[in-house]
Specification:
The complex is a heterodimer of chains A (669) and B (95).
Chain A: H1 2-27, E1 31-33, H2 34-63, H3 70-75, H4 82-87, H5 93-114, H6 123-143, H7 171-185, H8 187-199, H9 204-235, H10 246-271, H11 275-298, H12 313-333, H13 350-382, H14 390-410, H15 421-444, H16 450-481, H17 488-497, H18 499-523, E2 526-532, E3 537-540, E4 543-554, E5 559-569, E6 575-579, E7 582-586, E8 591-595, E9 597-599, E10 604-613, E11 620-628, H19 630-648, H20 653-668
Antiparallel strand pairs in A: 2-11, 3-4, 4-5, 5-6, 5-7, 7-8, 9-10, 10-11
Helix pairs in contact in A: 1-2, 1-6, 2-5, 2-6, 5-6, 5-7, 6-8, 7-9, 8-9, 8-11, 9-10, 9-19, 10-11, 10-13, 11-12, 13-14, 14-16, 15-16, 16-17, 16-18, 17-18, 18-19
Chain B: H1 4-20, E1 32-34, H2 38-62, H3 68-91
Helix pairs in contact in B: 2-3
The chains are: A alpha+beta (669), B mainly alpha (95).
Chain lengths: 669, 95
């Protein structure tokens, strides 16, 4: 089957090449045969089908333990549970590139499937640019990171090396594909943007489509980034979820620019402004996804997430340069059509606040990028590799993130074009007062550090603006339908009519919940290291920990030393849970990993790591972290994803028509 | 014979049939689509944008976000814009 997979990959490459070349040739004509457009659409779908076959071929080799294949031998072994044999497909660089190819082609196929409703003048170039990403990534896979290579040795190996133990975690089944769905999805807005520039069809059609597809990718990217944080929290054993690691940062960069784009795109849709700005954001977002791939696979930065260093960095850099150069040339060529329809009239308008929000998001993006690339620049200019750590990222980004939270309260509350002074006073007096009172209460309660106080007060301020906006919306809706402001039907009608607006509020509320959780876990975290013998106790915060014993265990593909620690409440000495942190040794990989014992709670997480055992094998060295409100970080992320789905998934037309009919009926009464 | 050769041949045959299908569909074959309709599309965009701005303005006004004076002024300007765009669309032969 491996030959079939390889053949399917070659076929996909050929089809993608045909898609790009034929798309450009057809797009240059002033009159296009519909059969050509339809054939191009089908080529785009066929690329995904071929890549699906290639992925199946590789998956079959993993499931059937075909160790004659180098990649399978390197990342799998017979003892691994079947789920890890599947996740091993993307456990190494070669397979992850193939998965990337498939996902980007699958997105393109979905766009092609939906494209029968899209504006025709856009289509030939759209198919050409949709096929550009698969063509590039298939080229890299085929010529530089081919997973279908046989082992050089003539011997058929009886067993494989096995997957990196850190990756033998259930989150690896879902985190990389979700993250890749976010990354690869951003190729779609890029294709729309370039197709609009190349065809000259620069009306609002493409920007509307960009918003929908960016939102889908953004939702996946959010889920992928958070799942990555959750994996790091559970698996890496350092007590946190985000270490500003270069590869974590690489996933954050396109998320930041995509978030900026989702805001500024509304300004273009409504006001015909920020046209070049939006094109720049689309291209930058796509370029940053390619840059992230380059960062992970080139070996220029050190990271726990990075794949082995290779010499394919220049291929990515060449593609990256090509993307940017082509966009610049096309923007210059179309500059007359890209003039704004009007200018911003007032600083107290939603468009002005959205622009400010974009500038803050890009500032964060630049700061993170600078931090990531600093070791490379310092080595290039001084010959010495200097790195910037967590303090740099926190010092720069915390104030920027907080200003973003502030703008999150302002933006949705004020009007397009110009807000009246009376509205500004009415909308913000109470939230400002509320935020101020929260600050005073916090200081009174003993929390005196500047950033935590500011963060909690800002969150309260934004929460009040969201609630105020909801109340005003309900009142206005009740006026239209002549129903009670607080009746569920008024809320349901309002939500249906302004689904995008209230979906965005759900996202913003999720951000608030996350901000509170991050602030609490940064400002009030407790960290202790101690050693316990059997029956000995250690007390911290509201808890006491007692070591029951240390025992050894043998499993199919690893051996473990486990400490059994009884967690008690200090209040009444009742047993809350028995925590079992482990040290695991994987003989095949010759690697030791820590398995965290975690007690998740609404107030705090108790996070225990077994750092080591003494020579007698009875005393355990433990590392304890008490992370306040940690679980709320994940709840906040779930809210953001739900909000993303609410905004991205369109309401069926029939339901919309029914609703309008109902409302018309009500109005006629 | 290894199974991969017939499997590959089957894949090629199926994809070829899928790809050349449009060239044998009478409804598509020979039909030409002009792609120079941008000025008309731009007018439709302007209409949609002006109507949306009008809707946003009314919503903002009902929520008390814009003053009565600003509302009247902006509504008049937007209504005139809609009328102008509708006139232009009519001139282009649209409905």
């Amino acid at each position: 089957m491996i030959e079939f997979g390889h053949f399917a990959l070659c076929l996909a490459w050929l089809l993608a090449l045909i898609g790009v070349v034929a798309g450009c040739l057809v797009g240059r004509r002033s009159h296009v045969a519909l059969s050509h457009v339809e054939a191009l659409r089908r080529v785009t779908i066929a690329v995904a089908i071929s890549l699906g076959c290639a992925l199946l071929g590789l998956g079959y080799s993993f499931v059937t333990n075909d160790y004659s294949i180098q990649y399978v031998w390197q990342y799998s072994n017979r003892e691994m549970p079947w789920i890890y044999k599947i996740t091993a497909i993307w456990g190494g660089m070669d397979g992850s590139m193939l998965l990337w190819c498939f996902l980007v082609a699958a997105y393109c196929a979905f766009v092609a499937r939906a494209s029968v409703k899209y504006p025709r003048p856009l289509l030939p170039f759209l198919y050409a640019f949709l096929n550009t990403s698969p063509l590039f990534f298939i080229t890299v896979t085929l010529f530089f990171t081919n997973p279908f290579r046989y082992l050089r040795s003539a011997l058929v190996m009886p067993d494989g090396n096995g997957l990196n133990p850190l990756l033998q975690n259930e989150y690896m089944a879902i985190h990389p594909p979700t993250l890749y769905l976010g990354f690869t999805g951003l190729a779609v807005p890029y294709a729309f943007c370039m197709a609009a520039l190349a065809s000259g069809h620069l009306s609002n059609d493409w920007i509307r489509l960009v918003r929908r597809w960016t939102l889908i990718a953004w939702t996946f990217l959010t889920a992928g980034v958070v799942l990555g944080g959750h994996w790091a929290y559970l698996e890496l054993g350092w007590g946190g979820f985000w270490a500003w690691d270069p590869v974590e940062n690489a996933s954050l960069l396109p998320w930041l620019t995509a978030t900026a784009l989702l805001h500024s795109v509304m300004v273009q849709e409504r006001k015909g402004m920020l046209k070049i700005w939006n094109i720049s954001l689309v291209v930058l977002t796509y370029a940053l996804t390619v840059f992230g791939t380059f960062l992970t696979r080139s070996g220029i930065v050190q990271s726990v997430h990075a794949f082995a260093s290779t010499d394919i960095g220049w291929v990515f850099l060449a593609y990256l340069s090509g993307i940017i150069l082509l966009a610049v040339v096309l923007v210059i060529y179309r500059r007359k059509e890209l003039r704004p329809d009007r200018a911003i009239e007032s600083f107290f308008s939603r468009e002005a606040v959205f622009l400010l929000n974009n500038l803050v998001l890009l500032s964060i993006c630049f700061a993170v990028l600078w931090g990531v690339m600093f070791p490379v620049f310092s080595e290039a200019f001084t010959g010495e590799k200097q790195t910037v750590g967590i303090p740099f990222f926190n010092a720069v980004n915390v104030p920027l993130f907080l200003s973003l939270v502030f703008l999150m309260g302002i933006g949705p509350t004020i009007a397009w074009k110009r807000s009246s002074l009376s509205h500004l006073l009415r909308a913000f007096t109470l939230p400002f007062l509320g935020g101020f009172l929260v600050a005073i209460a916090l200081v009174w309660a003993g929390i005196t550090e500047f950033y935590p106080v500011l963060s909690y007060s800002l969150c309260f301020f934004v929460l009040m603006t969201i609630l105020g906006e909801l109340q005003r919306g309900l009142s206005a809706q009740a006026g239209v339908t002549q129903s009670s402001t607080w009746s569920p039907s008024t809320a349901a009608t309002l939500f249906r009519r302004q689904r995008i607006k209230y979906g965005a509020h759900i996202i913003h509320f999720g951000v608030l919940v996350m901000t509170v959780a991050i602030t609490a876990s940064m400002a009030h975290k407790i960290e202790r290291e101690f050693t316990l013998g059997p029956g000995e106790r250690f007390t911290v915060g509201r808890f006491s920990l007692e070591l029951r014993n240390v025992r050894e265990e043998e499993h199919a593909n690893y051996g473990a030393v486990q400490a059994q620690v009884i967690l008690r409440s200090l209040k009444d000495d009742s047993i809350l849970e028995t925590l079992r942190p482990e040290l695991r040794f994987y003989p095949k990989n010759k690697e030791t990993t820590t398995e965290v014992a975690l007690r998740m709670g609404q107030r705090e997480d108790v996070y225990l790591v077994l750092a080591g055992i003494d020579e007698s094998g009875t005393r355990a060295s433990l590392k304890l972290f008490i992370n306040p409100l940690q679980v709320w970080l994940w709840y906040g992320a779930i809210l953001m994803i739900i909000g993303g789905i609410v905004v991205a998934v369109p309401v069926p037309r029939q339901a919309m028509a029914k609703q309008r009919e109902k409302e018309r009926g009500l109005q006629s009464i | 014979m290894s199974i991969w050769i017939p499997a590959s041949l089957l894949l090629v045959a199926l994809l070829t049939a899928f790809l050349i299908g449009p060239f044998f569909e009478p409804a598509l074959n020979g039909a030409l689509e002009s792609i120079e309709r941008d000025s008309f599309r731009a007018l439709l965009d302007s209409k949609e944008r002006a109507l949306r701005a009008l809707k946003d303005l009314e919503l903002d006004h009902s929520m008390g976000k814009v003053s009565a004076e600003d509302f009247e002024h902006s509504k008049l300007a937007l209504s005139l814009e809609v009328v102008k765009v509708l006139d232009d669309i009519k001139r282009h032969g649209g409905e």
